[in-house]
Protein: General stress protein
Amino acid sequence: MSFFDKIFGGKPEEKESKSFWNLIESEKDLEDAIKKSYSGKIAIFKHSTSCFISKTVLRNFEKEIDDADNHNVTLYFLDLLAHRNISNKIAENFGIRHESPQLIVIKNGNEINNASHQDITLSTLYYE
Structure:
């Protein structure tokens, strides 16, 4: 790994995916996630794989999740560059301005909290 990879988080292909993420890669995946919100809170992390800030926020959030005893929220991950149309659908469906990175918490089919950039923390999940 080069010096710059160490500083900036490595190459995208080197990043291992955390096991707690459920991927959203289609509109059907989004519909299934929203349906799941009727049986418990879900959160969708919208991430730009080419943005240093987004990578840093994601890494910090994942560390918080790893260190948490129990977060009781089903976590979903959306790669914005690969699935911009799904991100647009989320913004339209929930009336939320698109941001990146962004964490949207959904319960009973409704957005109950969202945060972007450095405001994304584990505490975002606990808002009622």
Summary: The chain is about 35% helix and 20% strand. The two ends are 42 Å apart (CA to CA).
